[in-house]
Design goal:
alpha+beta, Heat Shock Protein 90, 2 domains, two-stranded antiparallel sheet, 61% helix
């Protein structure tokens, strides 16, 4: 651009000078890019980024100005000492503007890319949430669950009316909580626990002494944000594919604690886990749960399940 608008004649010296200008600019912006990536500037918000970009642009302008004078010396071009400082200030301002606009274009491109990635992520998460809600509602409202729950409650009406009334309340709470929870990104962990308790209490009416459960939660974790219906899925799996298959029944135990900046939730149940075995889908399923965690926490959350010391152990790890 400088050569196109140059007023005096273009010769070998001016072409070499313009080439040096171009190469120096490319090298310095590559160096600038290295430091941007090295210190994770792309992860910063716009407001704290502005002073850093301004300071970096001025610094790069100084380095570029020094490189320009170095090229002039190599080409034996005369530098007017009388006008040296005035010329240097003007050039420094001009070069800093170059680097500032380069930064605007560079960061603007990456912010646009990041916004697009976030939009795609939100679309995937919304899709996953809808799938979670629909599949979970289908599970909670399926005829088998309703039939078993209502039969259990009906058997209690004459035998223990107060307990039957409580069971109806729990069933109502479970269905309402499931409906509301499926529409949220996150909910307090203690609300998820209420859903799980209502579910286990209803199942305990049906299984009676064949089902025991225990919940141990660190108090500091009760208000932590948690993906809705995720723990419910693991507990439902534990009852359907563990306790219900054992003639003597068993116990479901839920533990939650914090360790190494992680929230670790463990669900254990009597029985054995057969990976890849053919069985009916339960709730949103383990694979869908893993998919949700991957989307919501960008690979920083884990869900694993397996056999350990004669019991089935499922564990969720979420970053705090």
């Amino acid at each position: 651009m400088g050569l196109l608008f140059r007023k005096d004649a273009i010769n070998v010296s001016t072409i070499v000078g313009a080439s040096g200008f171009l190469v120096s600019g490319i090298l310095l912006t590559h160096l600038f890019r290295y430091f941007i990536l090295r210190f994770h500037w792309l992860k910063l918000k716009v407001v704290p980024l502005i002073p850093l970009v301004l300071a970096a642009s001025i610094l790069m302008g100084v380095v570029f100005l020094i490189s320009e004078y170095a090229v002039d010396l190599l080409l034996d071009q005369y530098v007017d000492t009388i006008d040296f400082w005035s010329r240097s200030i003007k050039q420094l301002f001009s070069f800093s503007i170059y680097f500032f606009f380069w930064s605007v274009i560079y960061f603007g491109f990456h912010f646009f890319e990041r916004a697009r990635d976030e939009e795609i992520k939100n679309i995937r998460l919304t899709s996953s949430k809808n799938e979670v809600e629909l599949l979970n509602l289908r599970t909670q409202l399926n005829p088998h669950f309703m039939f078993n729950s209502m039969n259990s409650i009906r058997a209690l009406i004459d035998e223990d009316p107060a307990r039957a009334k409580s069971a109806i309340t729990k069933l109502s709470n479970l269905l309402r909580s499931t409906l509301l929870a499926g529409k949220k990104d996150l909910l307090p962990f203690d609300e998820e626990l209420e859903i799980v308790r209502d579910y286990l209490d209803l199942e305990k009416i049906r299984f009676e002494e064949r089902l025991d459960y225990d919940i141990e939660i660190e108090p500091d974790l009760q208000k932590r944000p948690f993906p809705p219906l995720l723990l419910q899925t693991l507990v439902e799996n534990a009852v359907k594919h563990g306790i219900s298959n054992l003639s003597a029944g068993g116990e479901v135990k839920i533990l939650a604690h914090a360790s190494d900046e992680k929230m670790i939730i463990t669900v254990t149940n009597s029985g054995s886990y057969r990976q890849g075995g053919k069985r009916k889908s339960t709730g949103i399923g383990l694979e869908n749960s893993r998919k949700r965690l991957s989307i919501m926490y960008s690979g920083r959350a884990k869900l694993k399940i397996g056999n350990e010391s004669g019991i089935v152990k499922a564990q969720i790890e979420l970053p705090l």
